[in-house]
Every structure is written in structure tokens, then in C-alpha cells.
Amino acid sequence: MSKLNYKLERSNDKITPFGGISLLIPLLDKMGIRDFLDKELDHPGSNRGKPPSSKIIPVRDF
Description:
Helix content is 37%, strand content 0%. The chain has helices spanning 21-31, 33-40, 53-56. Residues 40-62 are annotated as: Disordered.
């Protein structure tokens, strides 16, 4: 398993409710969770529907 390459720095930016999402999304993608959810859960009936993983993990490429 490869390591995630992150550099932590102090910032004066305001804290948002999505503070840890930048670490979580790449981890879920490396683990293949999004692909697993799309494979195992039912897909929408129309071709314009969103994949099932977008309802569970709504943020893409944060």
C-alpha cells in the first residue's frame, strides 16, 4: 500500500465543516470504496442519474 503525501502547515484561514475531507476523500479513493459502492449498490433507472457512491460520498475531487 502506498503512502499519501501530505504536508501540514499552519494557516490563518477560517475553519470550515469540511476541514478533514481533504484527507478522507483521497483515502477512500485509494481504498476503492467509491468503486465498490458503485458496483454493489443499485444504479438509477435513467442514464442521467448519479452513481450510488455520490449519495454516500457527495464530494468529488475536493
